[in-house]
């Protein structure tokens, strides 16, 4: 367990099934993507206001089964808030699959008191960062 956890006041997305939660998450994504003509992004407080691209999250999500997608999508709004506002140092390590990628894990606690984890992938050559995943800690 990590000593420092970012506490957000935002509660997880509501909904009893995948369609409801997915609709709410897509609405948030569409709101962010409408601000730019190119790839959607948010700026991160920890990475000195650098862009964190959001499109890779949806590709990664589609590789999971439906119950896992629902579990991850419920934490989507909390994950976005953590990326925007957290200045707490993540646990970072170089990827085992690709030596040119660094994986950063941020820990947070949502408004309901549940602990969740946000993963960001950084390409060490280009410095580009992408939001990969958000999921509750089990």
Describe what this molecule looks like in 3D:
With 138 residues, the chain is α/β, with parallel strands linked by helices. It has one domain (6-136). It is 30% helix and 29% strand. The chain has helices at residues 18-33, 55-61, 66-73, 76-85, and strands at residues 6-7, 41-44, 50-53, 91-94, 101-109, 115-123, 129-136. Strands 1, 2, 3, 4, 5, 6 and 7 form a 7-stranded mixed beta sheet that branches. Helix 1 (18-33) packs across helix 3 (66-73). The chain is globular and about 40 Å long.
List descriptors.
single chain, 7 strands, globular, alpha/beta, seven-stranded mixed beta sheet, 29% strand, 4 helices
List strands and helices in order, with pairings:
Layout: E1 6-7, H1 18-33, E2 41-44, E3 50-53, H2 55-61, H3 66-73, H4 76-85, E4 91-94, E5 101-109, E6 115-123, E7 129-136
Parallel strand pairs: 1-5, 3-7
Antiparallel strand pairs: 2-3, 4-5, 5-6, 6-7
Helix pairs in contact: 1-3
Instruction: Work out the radius of gyration.
Output: 14 Å
Number of domains: 1
**Low-pLDDT ranges:** none
Mean pLDDT: 91
Shape: globular
Reported for the largest beta sheet, the result is:
7 strands, mixed
From the N-terminal CA to the C-terminal CA, the straight-line distance is 12 Å
Counting copies of identical and different chains, the oligomeric state is single chain
What percent strand? 25-35%
Encode the helix/strand succession as letters: EHEEHHHEEEE
Summarize the amount of helix as a percent range: 25-40%
Structural class: alpha/beta
How many runs of DSSP E, i.e. beta strands? 7
Q: Helix count?
A: 4
């Amino acid at each position: 367990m990590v000593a420092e956890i970012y506490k957000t006041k935002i509660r997880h997305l509501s909904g009893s099934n995948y369609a409801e939660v997915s609709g709410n998450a897509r609405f948030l994504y569409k709101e962010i993507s409408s601000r730019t003509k190119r790839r959607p992004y948010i700026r991160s407080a920890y990475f000195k206001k650098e862009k964190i691209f959001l499109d890779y999250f949806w590709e990664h999500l589609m590789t999971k089964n439906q119950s896992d997608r629902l579990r991850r999508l419920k934490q989507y709004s909390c994950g976005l808030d953590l990326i925007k506002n957290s200045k707490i140092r993540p646990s970072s390590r170089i990827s085992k699959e690709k030596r040119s990628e660094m994986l950063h894990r941020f820990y947070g606690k949502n408004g309901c008191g549940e602990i969740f984890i946000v993963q960001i992938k950084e390409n060490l050559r280009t410095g580009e960062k992408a939001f990969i995943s958000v999921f509750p800690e089990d």
